[in-house]
Amino acid sequence: MKPADVFDRDAEWAELEAFVARPGAGMRLGIVSGRRRVGKSFLLRRLAADGIYHQALEEERAPAIARVAGMVAARAGLPVNAVRFEDWLSAFDALLSRLEPTLLVIDELPYLLARSPELLTVLQRLYDDRRGGTPLRLLLCGSGLSVMSNLLTGAQPLRGRAQLDLRLQPFDYRVSRRHWGLQDHEVALAVNAIVGGAAGYLDLMEGTTPSSPGDIADWLGATLLNPSHALYREDEFLLREDPRLVDRALYQSILSVVAAGERTPSRIGARLGRDRTAMSALLATLVDAGFLRREVDVANSKGVTYLVADPVLRFGRLIINPNRAALDERRSGPVWQASQEHWHAQILGPHLEEVATTWLHRYASSDTLGGDAARIGRRVLSDRATRNKMELDAVGMDAGGRVLFVAEVKATSTLRDGADLARLERARELLGPAAVGAKLLLISRRGFTKRLRSATRDRRDVELVDLERLYEGS
Question: Helices in 234-307 by DSSP H: which ranges?
Answer without folding.
Answer: 234-240, 248-259, 265-272, 276-288
